[in-house]
């Protein structure tokens, strides 16, 4: 930042204070006695205006283009600090108990005053270091937020692959969409079966012909007859899969190529090559690659049918009543993304379900490269051999066909289909590729106390009042604050209060803190929380009291103790351990005052290091609705068991589909490069259709075995 910001107007302390509404000090009378010259000027922190100006200039120079913004932030810090220092301290509340010291307030105080707690000669380094850390934190938050937003944009940019118009409403009718996908699936099922049968016949005919086996209708003796028969079979498969062929061409025209695009161009080039060979004066010495294209196209149609069935079943399960959702939520305060169970709308579920999966996204980059590579190599060989009409079609079709990995279309469809069938039995609906990405990329899973201790696993003991407070008063104020806090204790206090024939009282000035809450109930200042929370508020509590009890203080004095008993469930323990063993970071922010990491370790035999405790005041802030979030799954009201099952199955789908995608991309790359090299060397016998089929079928068989084993693992309970 240049010095032009400070050239026009000299910055003084009075100008800074005036900008923020603080009146400058009155001029001293003429007869006033001046302070000694060695005494520092009292401006709140012993800094002169010149020192302030130098600090701002130094920070601005280091900040580059954003120097003006950060210089302004430093001005605000100085001005607000001086203002706070000059303001009169607020009076203590009439109740006589100290104000709740929340974690946010402590963090603010440290951020605001820590740079000024040192001697004046150290201020330069401290302020500059603080600004640099602020810049790094902001950039980190922006990067994490941008990655989260990129996943959302990828979902929004996904084109309508299934040709269903989405209305401009928050979420479409799941039942109607399920029926629409079911109709498309019923239409694709017989076509896929017929295409697979034809492809199998073409594969058998190609392999038998190249091994010299005589086939009926003269196919085994005449290469021309064999070429004609293969072209007819390939055209029939293309007619059965015409929607995929047309969609592939349209995607290229729209600039969003996919594997269907590669299939479309490979089929067309092979048909053109076969026709040219049939029109020659001599019989075609080599068979076209019709069997490879037909097999890849038939498998792609079968994969489409499988994916349509998955979408229909997922939406039908999501349309069932009495369900909650799993949302993927970005927390700017922690700069992390969390998965959490939440009741409410299902906005974003349908968009995530129909977005492009990782395999399709990968081939959107691979396909253009393959098309360019095939065209360039074919043109180069045509120029070198001076035989454009003979070399170009054959080599172009050979490279494209070598890139058509038969198993590519199954990379995501097969694992997702197995996961959908398994999850539907538990009432879980996965939001397709979106939830698979979220389950893999999220920084942690947010666990609430309702997940750990659902209804029926918590009960309260008898209230132990402390004189002069009455038992009814203690129970009433504790229940009132528990209702404001929410969590698993709220319904338990409601039952306790109803059994005593008492009613709750309105709570004012409610605030969260670590291990407790505070508020004003009926004019009384009330603290409710753990014994550690009470000690931090300077309230004396008896020794040797149970750690799982709820402590209540009124007007700064301990008023009562309410024991809390927990019954741990084995299902909850299994769910927590399953996520921890699979490296899923479990994070908890509990409004149940007795649930601590030590208690979880004692009740569920879980190491404290395996669970992270989040700030309650940040997680349950009033502005949580402003956080960026989208629905990742719809689950039944099954607590942490459904949450854990959904996340783990999505992570398994992610791992399996990633492996299959990598294998198919490797097959595509190796096939294209090998066919280009063999064609360039003139080794057409090695680059024949039969040899390419052996390579493609071997790679596909490996993928099918891996997919089958993975599907069995996904379907296992």
Features:
10% strand; alpha+beta; 24 helices; 6-stranded antiparallel beta sheet; 717 residues; disordered N terminus; 7-stranded mixed beta sheet
Oligomer: single chain
Beta-strand residue percentage? 5-15%
Task: Report on the biggest sheet.
Answer: 7 strands, mixed
Helical coverage, percent range: 55-70%
Strand order of the largest sheet: 3-15-1-2-4-13-14
Distance between the termini: 62 Å
Class of secondary structure makeup: alpha+beta
Count helical runs. 24
Number of DSSP E strands: 15
Q: Which residues sit in consecutive blocks of at least 5 with pLDDT less than 50?
A: 1-9, 28-47, 62-66, 77-123, 152-169
Shape, per Cα inertia axes? elongated
Plain-language structure description:
This protein has 717 residues and is of the alpha+beta class. It contains 24 helices and 15 strands. Helix 20 packs parallel to helix 23.
Short overview:
The protein is α+β, with helices and mostly antiparallel strands and 717 residues long.
Question: Secondary-structure blueprint of this entry?
Answer:
Layout: H1 13-19, H2 49-63, H3 67-86, H4 103-113, H5 123-157, H6 174-210, H7 223-240, H8 242-254, H9 259-278, H10 290-318, E1 323-331, E2 336-342, H11 349-353, H12 358-385, H13 388-402, H14 410-424, E3 429-430, H15 432-441, E4 444-447, H16 449-452, E5 458-460, E6 464-465, H17 471-485, H18 489-499, E7 507-513, E8 516-521, E9 524-529, H19 531-536, E10 550-554, E11 557-562, E12 564-566, H20 570-581, E13 586-588, H21 597-604, E14 611-613, H22 616-619, E15 629-636, H23 640-680, H24 689-715
Parallel strand pairs: 2-4, 4-13, 13-14
Antiparallel strand pairs: 1-2, 1-15, 3-15, 5-12, 6-11, 7-8, 8-9, 9-10, 10-11
Helix pairs in contact: 2-3, 2-5, 6-7, 6-10, 7-9, 7-10, 8-9, 9-10, 9-13, 10-14, 12-13, 12-23, 13-23, 14-23, 14-24, 15-23, 17-18, 20-23, 23-24
């Amino acid at each position: 930042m240049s010095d032009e910001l400070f050239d026009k107007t000299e910055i003084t302390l009075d100008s800074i204070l005036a900008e923020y509404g603080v009146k400058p000090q009155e001029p001293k009378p003429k007869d006033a006695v001046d302070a000694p010259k060695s005494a520092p000027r009292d401006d709140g922190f012993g800094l002169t205006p010149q020192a302030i100006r130098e600090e701002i200039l130094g920070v601005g120079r280091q900040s580059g283009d954003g120097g003006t913004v950060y210089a302004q932030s430093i001005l605000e810090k100085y001005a607000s600090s001086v203002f706070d220092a000059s303001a009169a301290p607020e009076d203590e509340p009439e109740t006589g108990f100290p104000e709740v010291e929340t974690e946010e307030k402590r963090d603010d105080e440290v951020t605001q005053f820590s740079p000024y707690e040192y001697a004046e000669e150290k201020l330069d380094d401290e302020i500059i270091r603080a600004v640099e850390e602020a810049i790094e934190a902001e950039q980190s938050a922006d990067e994490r937020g941008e990655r989260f937003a990129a996943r959302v944009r990828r979902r929004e940019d996904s084109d309508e692959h299934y040709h269903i118009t989405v209305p401009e409403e928050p979420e479409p009718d799941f039942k109607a969409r399920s029926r629409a996908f079911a109709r498309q699936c019923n239409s694709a099922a017989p076509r896929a079966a017929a295409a697979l049968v034809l492809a199998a016949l073409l594969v058998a005919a190609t392999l038998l012909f190249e091994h010299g086996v005589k086939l009926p209708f003269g196919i085994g003796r005449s290469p021309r007859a064999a070429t004609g028969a293969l072209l007819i079979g390939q055209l029939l498969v293309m007619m059965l899969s015409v929607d995929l062929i047309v969609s592939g061409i349209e995607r290229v025209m729209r600039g969003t190529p996919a594997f269907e695009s590669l299939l479309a161009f490979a089929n067309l080039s092979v048909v053109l090559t076969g026709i040219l060979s049939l029109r020659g004066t001599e019989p075609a010495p080599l068979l076209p690659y019709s069997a490879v294209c037909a097999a890849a196209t038939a498998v792609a149609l079968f994969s489409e049918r499988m994916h349509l069935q998955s979408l229909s079943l997922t939406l039908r399960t999501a349309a069932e009543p009495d369900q909650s959702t799993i949302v993927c939520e970005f927390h700017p305060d922690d700069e992390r993304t969390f998965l959490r169970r939440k009741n409410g709308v299902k906005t974003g579920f349908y968009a995530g379900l129909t977005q492009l999966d990782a395999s399709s996204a990968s081939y959107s980059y691979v396909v253009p490269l393959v098309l360019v590579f095939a065209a360039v190599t074919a043109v180069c060989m045509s120029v070198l051999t001076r035989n454009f009409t003979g070399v170009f079609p054959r080599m172009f079709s050979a490279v494209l066909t070598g890139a058509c990995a038969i198993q590519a279309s199954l990379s995501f469809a097969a694992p997702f289909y197995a996961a959908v069938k398994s999850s539907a039995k538990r009432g879980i609906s996965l939001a397709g590729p979106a939830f698979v990405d979220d389950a893999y990329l999220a920084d942690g899973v947010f666990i609430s106390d309702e997940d750990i201790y659902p209804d029926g696993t918590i009960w309260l003991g008898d209230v132990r009042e402390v004189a002069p407070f009455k038992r009814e008063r203690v129970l009433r104020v504790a229940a009132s604050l528990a209702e404001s806090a929410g969590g698993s204790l709220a319904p338990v206090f409601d039952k306790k209060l109803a059994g005593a024939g008492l009613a709750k009282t309105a709570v004012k000035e409610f605030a969260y803190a670590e291990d407790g809450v505070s508020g004003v109930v009926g004019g009384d200042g009330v603290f409710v929380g753990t014994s550690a929370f009470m000690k931090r508020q300077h309230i004396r509590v008896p020794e040797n009291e149970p750690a799982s009890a709820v402590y209540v203080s009124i007007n700064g004095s301990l008023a009562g103790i309410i024991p809390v008993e927990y019954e741990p469930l084995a299902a909850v323990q299994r769910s927590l351990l399953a996520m921890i063993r699979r490296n899923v970071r479990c994070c908890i922010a509990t409004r149940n005052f007795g649930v601590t990491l030590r208690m979880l370790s004692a009740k569920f035999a879980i190491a404290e290091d395996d669970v992270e405790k989040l700030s309650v005041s940040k997680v349950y802030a009033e502005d949580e609705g402003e956080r960026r979030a989208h629905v990742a799954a719809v689950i039944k009201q099954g607590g942490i068991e459904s949450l854990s099952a959904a996340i783990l199955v999505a992570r398994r789908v992610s791992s399996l589909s990633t492996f299959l995608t990598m294998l198919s991309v490797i097959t595509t790359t190796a096939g294209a490069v090998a066919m280009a090299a063999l064609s360039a060397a003139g080794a057409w016998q090695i680059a024949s259709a039969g040899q390419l089929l052996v390579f493609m079928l071997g790679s596909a068989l490996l993928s099918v075995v891996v997919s089958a084993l993975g599907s069995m693992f996904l379907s296992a309970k």
